Amino acid sequence: MNAIAYLDALRNALKDVMEPFIPSIPMAVYFGADALINSCELKTLVVQNAPRVVIGGQPNELYTLVMIDPDVPNPNAPHLSQLVSWIVTNIPGGASCAQGTEIASYVGPNPQIGVHRYILFLYQQQARLDDIDAIESRFHFNVEGFANRHNMGNPVGLSYFNVRRQANGRNANA
After folding, report:
1. What are phi and psi of 35, to 5 degrees?
2. Residue range 124-134, pLDDT digits in tens
C-alpha cells in the first residue's frame, strides 16, 4: 500500500474517533498464526479469541493497549459508540500484551448490522498504572478520555480491521 492509500485508509478507520496520526511504535497483531494487515476484513470465527499482540519500544517503557468498536450497534447510527473490547495496561516495550495487566477482558467482535471497524490503539504510559477503576459499561467508552485521565497523551501505535454482518443476520464470514 502506498503512502497516500495508507493515509486514506487510516483516515477512514479513525473517522469519528480521533484525528489521524502516524504511529511511532510498531505493533504486530496475530490471530492464530496469521499477522493482521491493516484495513483487512476478518471472519468472526477468526477473531473470537484474543490476538497475540507484540509491541516495539524499550523494555523500560510501559504501554497500554485499548481495542474499540466505534460502529456499535450500527455504522450508520453508532449511538452506543464506542464499545471497548479489550484493555491491557503495563505492557513492557518489546514484549507481548500477555505480559501486561488485563483491565477489561477481550470480547470478540460480533457486529449485528453492517461492517464494523475494530481499532487497537497503543499508548505510552508515563508510569505504571495500578489504580485503574473497573470499566462499568463497555458502551459509550471514550478512548481519548481514557488516555487523558491516565496521562497517556496521544496514541503511539495502531492496528485495525473490519468484520461484516449480512443483512439477513448471518455473519458474512462465518
Report:
1. -80, 140
2. 999 999 988 88
Determine the residue type at 19: E
CB 9 within 8 A of CB 38: yes
Residue ranges in the chain whose pLDDT is less than 70: 1-4, 6-7, 166-174
Tell me: cis bond preceding 73? Omega within 30 of 0 counts: yes
Q: Could you tell me which of 120, 110, 27 has the C-alpha nearest to residue 68?
A: 120
The sheet carrying 27-31 orders its strands as: 34-35, 27-31, 52-55
Classify domain 23-165 at the CATH superfamily level.
Answer: PEBP-like (3.90.280.10)
The domain ranges of the chain are 23-165
DSSP character at residue 29: E
Give the C-alpha separation, 114 to 103, whole Å.
Answer: 29
